[in-house]
Amino acid sequence: MPERFELGSTLYLDGVAAKVTSSRPNKGGYVILLDSVPDRNMAETLRGLWLTIPETDLYPLPGGAFYHFQLVDMDVYTDDDEHLGQIAEIIETPGNDVYIVRKTNERDVLLPAIKDVVLDVDTEASRMTVRLLPGLR
């Protein structure tokens, strides 16, 4: 979101506050200059660190949409109340996300994030209820 990267905005680089001193669109993303990162060489050393914002600054999402951090580690149950495991990863695809549900000593279950499969998401209880369509297990 462009306004997120406006001059003077505060972002958190691996949990440490940093101010945006410059930003510009670039190849579907943004190039951002932070006050605590004086040059490209230092920026290269920061690869792999998280650039975040406080949860209170998140943009509201439309009903039925969730941020990935709200879903990762969520318990997943079938509509018959069978515990399938927890969402370990989310794969983004052009059509829909795919949730990788992992349970110790069992094969991962890949669930498409579609209405026919995902019946309910309760972020307060950290619980998702799904219907397993043929071939999903």
Can you give me a brief rundown of this structure?
With 137 residues, the chain is mainly β.
Provide an overview of this structure.
The protein is mainly beta. Helix content is 7%, strand content 39%. It contains two helices and ten strands, in the order βββαβαββββββ. The protein has helices at residues 40-45, 68-71, and strands spanning 10-13, 16-26, 29-34, 51-52, 75-78, 83-91, 98-102, 109-112, 118-122, 127-130. The strands form two sheets. The chain has a six-stranded mixed beta sheet, with no helix packed on it. β2 (16-26) and β3 form a beta hairpin. The chain is elongated and about 55 Å long. The mean pLDDT is 93.
Please tally the β strands and state the result: 10
| Rg calculated over all Cα atoms | 19 Å
Largest sheet properties: 6 strands, mixed
Give helix % range.
under 10%
Mean pLDDT rating: 93
| Order of secondary-structure elements | EEEHEHEEEEEE
Percent of residues in beta strands: 35-45%
Uncertain regions: pLDDT < 50 for 5+ in a row?
none
SSE layout and pairings?
Elements: E1 10-13, E2 16-26, E3 29-34, H1 40-45, E4 51-52, H2 68-71, E5 75-78, E6 83-91, E7 98-102, E8 109-112, E9 118-122, E10 127-130
Parallel strand pairs: 5-10
Antiparallel strand pairs: 1-2, 1-4, 2-3, 5-6, 6-7, 7-8, 9-10
What labels describe this entry?
single chain, about 140 residues, mainly beta, six-stranded mixed beta sheet, four-stranded antiparallel beta sheet, 10 strands, about 5% helix, elongated
